[in-house]
Amino acid sequence: MDYTQQHHPGVPLSGTTRGQWAENIHTGRIAVVDASGRLLAAAGDPYAEAFMRSTAKPVQAAPSIAAGLMERFGLPEEAIALMSASHRGAPEHIALLERMLELTGVREEQLAFHDDLPLGRHERDEAMRAGAAPRKLYHTCSGKHVGLLAYCRMMDWPLEGYTNPEHPLQQRMLEAVAAFADLEPEEIGRAVDGCGLPVFRLPLEAIALTYARLALPEAAMADDEALPAARRVAEAMLAHPALVEGEGRLASVLLEHGILAKSGAQGMFALAIPQAGIGAAIQVDDGGESAWPVIAAELLDQLRGSLDLAGVLPEDRIDLERLLSAAAEGVRAQFPEVMVSSTGVETGRLRPAFELEWSSGL
């Protein structure tokens, strides 16, 4: 199979300079959608298909929340954030995961993947200094898996084989993703994610729509019981940014500034603006994360400058402009666009390289 026949390079999204020259370019694509499903803007092909990877986690949490998981097991609300998380393995992550095991009756050995050390570099160093042994709870996806196993217990589904695409749990996950994305289940491709669960492949604009509906679920026309739980998932993520990923992570920085956000592997990143019901999905072709911050900050700036094109009412724009501006500046403060050497000398800059094309021109 020639993978190049399935994946065509996108448009330049960002690049870096070194001295007076361009050093590299990150290509990819962006889709911006409102919660009704209207494509608002794009850079590159918004209909190109991509794997959601971990950006699917908030949607995967929603069915169990709608079914009463939190109430059934007496789980604290912050557990929703961890069920939606790609955590770094910090002490606060592990403490809450252990509490979730205690309350749900799920056993750590029932998680499908192998033992691991924390994903975060600082967290891994601390664990190794303390002589901690690898364990399944350190895995970045353990919050999702604990939640899904608890859902199986609640629904009397077998825990054995819960990662199998034909398992009732995974059929329910597929239905929920399809409802959020306004697709039929058979239109969604599935492969295997890094943690062993099925991973969903769908058009980038459908991923953006998923996030718009996480932010504004009442705008969705689809009939699925998971949709009403979307607001609860979003509110938990916004209330507990550090649980969703970790200190200094782009998604957590955006969440701290009121932007719903979640990273995925291999260059996938999604965000939403709850006040406007606007979702956006970014895919970087080279699969790296270093380009995300400059792209995300520029995306927020371009949205702020085009709220009229996005259909935002004039009376709502002032507060929204302030939120978008503060979020963009918060990203730049955490991820400076000026690059310096180890001696403190400026070596170059990170630069955005795209201009959104709005629906009138698409």
From TrEMBL:
Pfam families: Asparaginase_II. InterPro entries: Asparaginase_II. It comes from the Bacteria. This is Asparaginase. It comes from Paenibacillus pasadenensis. The lineage of its organism: Bacteria, Bacillati, Bacillota, Bacilli, Bacillales.
